[in-house]
Amino acid sequence: MGSLSRAFRIRRRRLAGAAAGLLAGLLAGCGGPSPAPADPDFRVEDCAAHRLADEQGRPIIGIEDIAALPRHGMLVLSAYDRRATARALRDGRPLPAGGGLYLLDLGKALHKAGKWKALRLKGATIRRPHGITAIGEEKADTPRLFVIARRYRNGTLEADIRQMRLDLRAGRLIAVKELAHGPAWCAANDLAFDERANALLVTLDHAACHGPARWWEDLTAAASGRLVRIDLDEDAVAPLTTPEAAHIISHSLVWPNGIAIARDRVWVAETRGRRLRTFDSHDLAPRAITALSGAPDNLSLLLPADDGDDRAAPGVLVAVHDSLWRLALLRDHLFGVRHAKSRIIRLDDDGQAFELLVDDGSRLSAATTALAINERLIAASAWDDRLLVCRLIARKDEERRT
Fold first, then answer.
1. Domain range holding 249?
2. pTM, whole model, 2 decimals?
3. Could you read off the pLDDT of 304-315 as tens digits, one per residue?
4. Separation CA 26–CA 20 (nearest Å)
């Protein structure tokens, strides 16, 4: 009788979770402006998908975020198998042990066909990392790394925000400081380093992480997400236990997700709002809202060329989901859905959106993050086990050659 009761509870949790996700996706799946025009400044070619494995041959699944180290030609990958984690939670089983932070030497990998190898970083136990950002400094071989590390305690989601050093030679993480921790940070999604203020800006995508309150937020697309600032005060010793202990910049965002700081503004993706919101980078006052033709996920900067000749029009790269409805189906492989379209758009300094990459999902399903490094466009997905790598070409370069 006990086993039957447990099986019923597991089945009920599965159905409830799937129904909430599907209804939320359905309610968010309509509306928005027309698709963006083709990018007049950039194009991609020679795109190839590569599966990833760690040094022991274990597959790397579900790349949530990527941080670039351009000086070294390396990428830091934040990855864990979300689908396997969700299934284990629903079934009451132990969580999968895989996942972590990985270092990929892109320069070496580009010369290899097929599966690529990435080094799992040692020195810290981070099984379910989320948003990350890396800061290269004068200490060239030990860049700073900020990480949102999610964990489950008795089935309840919690999160830490950690400042670390990355020893590139040893492939190790060196703990520096725990900036925030605890269940109140469970909705921490992404972060960006504000060099001017020596602070971290952090998005929290929900006000609640569990139960009816979370479902209600999803079903109504409630504007309850937050943007907060954590000052990196050298004198501060204890980590912050609640977002209210930080500086609340905004508390009325619709599922805030990716974040990037570009020149004079801070860009925040509102996934359920199908838009980007900007804030002034100096006083963090709201500036503008840019409507998109899909639901934005992670953001990254597309920087000018190193020689400063303005060949590469700067801008922001955005991974966009056409349909959150289909994404909800993909998440649980419902009704045979095994792929979803991947789209990467670029926004220029004026907020104009341009289509840079569209893939039907056969090479990469439901891209959630993308960045540009060393004339390559790299895209990944929290729901796939591949990297999509394309050559990124500035059209002005082609004009000069011809």
1. 2-401
2. 0.89
3. 544 444 434 568
4. 10
